[in-house]
Design brief:
The chain is α+β, with helices and mostly antiparallel strands and 140 residues long. Helix content is 34%, strand content 25%. It has four helices and five strands. It has a five-stranded mixed β-sheet, with helices on both faces.
Length: 140
């Protein structure tokens, strides 16, 4: 049983899954109401500096696994965890859709491929509902 109840735990888990990938990988984690991992999977694999992501596949994964929450994450092989403009836009799109279909996206975590650092949209208050979502994490 893996509990992903804060951004640091998510980053550690994501780093263990990606393990020095040389291209971008986009992962989705489906959680139950207690923030326990139901299933995770790399849904998209890209190039050294880009990964095409489609929201319908992200939410299909969540629906198929009966998720209460989703967390998404990807790596930056460059070692720079700062989100790109595309990362910010995609995160906002996923957040909006998650609210609509009632499977909230709790966080989007970016890790470097060296395993040294990470960036969390929730931790940086970059998500539209960051304070409300932090309450979900804090309930654990």
């Amino acid at each position: 049983m893996i509990e992903l109840s804060n951004s640091e735990k998510v980053a550690g888990y994501l780093k263990s899954q990606i393990q020095r990938a040389e291209v971008e990988e986009f992962w989705v984690m489906a959680l139950n109401p207690q923030c326990v991992l139901i299933e995770s999977r790399m849904l998209f694999r890209g190039t050294v500096d880009h990964c095409f992501i489609h929201p319908r596949d992200v939410f299909r994964f969540g629906i198929l696994h009966n998720a209460s929450f989703l967390i998404v994450g990807h790596n930056h092989p460059s070692g720079n965890c700062v989100p790109s403009i595309q990362d910010v836009k995609m995160t906002r799109r996923l957040m909006t859709l998650g609210r609509l279909i009632q499977i909230p996206v709790l966080d989007h975590v970016i890790v470097d491929s060296n395993g040294a650092g990470f960036y969390t949209f929730n931790g940086q208050k970059r998500l539209p509902d960051a304070e409300a979502l932090q309450l979900c994490f804090d309930q654990r």
